[in-house]
Specification:
Shape: elongated
Strand content: 15-25%
Strand order of the largest sheet: 1-2-3-4-5
Distance between the termini: 42 Å
CATH architecture of the domain at 64-265 and 382-390: 3-Layer(aba) Sandwich
Order of helices and strands: HHHHHEEHHEHEHHEHEEEEEEEEH
Domain CRAL-TRIO: 71-244
Protein name: SEC14 like lipid binding 6
Number of strands: 13
InterPro entries: CRAL-TRIO_dom, CRAL-TRIO_dom_sf, CRAL/TRIO_N_dom, CRAL/TRIO_N_dom_sf, GOLD_dom, GOLD_dom_sf, SEC14/CRAL-TRIO_domain
Number of helices: 12
CATH superfamily of the domain at 64-265 and 382-390: CRAL-TRIO lipid binding domain
Helix content: 25-40%
Domain GOLD: 270-378
């Protein structure tokens, strides 16, 4: 094994000895073991603990046969990620077209386990492609490049169950696929990306953070520093096209899109709420949230029992006292929602600092009390990425 110091060679030999009982089940044992040692700074005990957990993960997910597994049709058609082309060193390139992804549609049409399994299948496909490239080029190809196209990223992508799925996948990726990422390249990122990244960064290692590269307005030219021009689709600024000339390379890169309702298996995803309150007949409930600086996102979800409920968002004009709706600035117009039939969720980018009031309105009902279950969160942008993006 090249590039190892004598102490590292000794650690590898000891690691091999420590896990003799599972060694025969590992692909390319020495290369595989080195990934784990490097990920945990050649800490033998930590590396062994994580590797043994990974072996359990391999059994649970049946990774030995996952490449033969076919995801449900809706996942194959609308989960916007694909392998397309290679960088200058032969590493495969994985594209994720985030902006056109429909997280709610997918989670209403397939199980969380199927969506996670499809992502793990992509990881195994990437490793298989690395193996093929190693054989083709006569050198080791061990890492991949990921390109995240965020054009069209919006508030719908902050839907809580969708973010929780992303967090779970990120955590599993760190634990089970160490040392395979060369760079994670972000293009066409809106300011909302700083909020999205802040929601998942705690599930990523510091090493992964360092590999995130955000490209600015000149991203098409900058991308050629990482990927050869003939391996980049025209859509991404260079020369690769379909045989029919399509610049998006639709047969190579899945662009996802809105999931048709004909695929839906259910009308709602089961949610858990942090608060349950009663809103008396002819009254309203105000839930106040302080926003310290612009760019934060308010995210909510609620359900009602006993009938529909009015809901709107307001910005207070006077601090320290309760105000009536007509005395505040209306940010999201109040309207009645059938939240007793289908739970509601939504989000709002706060353009100003101040006290935002989420108002549940039952003033129109003179007979029925309503029981409201709700969760409200303030999502903060990652300041480092906010500063980087403001320079573009």
């Amino acid at each position: 094994i090249a590039d190892l110091s004598p102490p590292q060679e000794k650690s590898l030999a000891q690691f091999r000895e420590n896990i003799q009982d599972v060694l025969s089940a590992l692909p390319n044992p020495d290369d595989f073991l080195l990934r784990w040692l490097r990920a945990w700074s050649f800490d033998l005990q930590k590396s062994e603990d994580m590797l043994r957990k990974h072996m359990e993960f391999r059994k649970q997910q049946d990774l030995a046969s996952i490449l033969a597994w076919q995801p449900p049709e809706v996942v194959r058609l609308y989960n916007a990620n694909s392998i397309c082309g290679h960088d200058g060193e032969g590493s495969p390139v994985w594209y994720h077209i985030m902006g056109s992804l429909d997280p709610k549609g997918l989670l209403l049409s397939a199980s969380k386990q199927e969506l996670l399994r499809d992502s793990f299948r992509s990881c195994e496909l990437l490793l298989w492609e690395c193996k093929l490239q190693s054989q083709k080029l006569g050198k080791k190809v061990e890492k991949i490049i990921a390109v995240f196209d965020l054009e069209g990223l919006g508030l719908r992508h902050l839907w809580k169950p969708g973010i929780e799925l992303l967090q779970e996948f990120s955590s599993a990726l760190e634990a089970n696929y160490p040392e395979i990422l060369k760079n994670l390249i972000v293009v066409r990122a809106p300011k909302l990306f700083a909020v999205t990244f802040n929601l998942v960064k705690s599930y990523m290692s510091e090493e992964t953070h360092r590999k995130v590269v955000i490209l600015g307005d000149n991203w098409k030219q900058e991308l050629t520093k990482f990927i050869s021009p003939d391996q980049l689709p025209v859509e991404f600024g260079r020369t690769m096209t379909e045989p029919d000339g399509n610049p998006k390379c639709l047969t190579k890169i899945n662009h996802g899109g809105e999931v048709p309702r004909s695929y839906y298996l259910c009308n709602q995803v089961r949610l858990q709420y942090e608060h349950t309150v009663s809103v008396g007949r002819g009254s309203s409930l105000q839930v106040e949230n302080k926003i310290l600086f612009p760019g934060c996102v308010l995210r909510w979800q609620f359900a009602s029992d006993g009938g529909d409920i009015g809901f709107g968002v307001f910005l207070k004009t006077k601090m320290g006292e309760r105000q009536k709706a007509r005395e505040m600035t209306e940010v999201l117009p109040s309207q009645r929602y059938n939240a007793h039939l289908v739970p509601e969720d939504g989000s709002l980018t706060c353009l100003k600092a101040g006290s935002y009031v989420l108002r549940f309105d039952n003033t129109y009902s003179l007979v029925h009390c309503k029981h409201i279950s709700y969760t409200v969160e303030v999502l903060l942008p990652d300041q480092t990425f906010m500063e980087k993006m403001e320079k573009f």
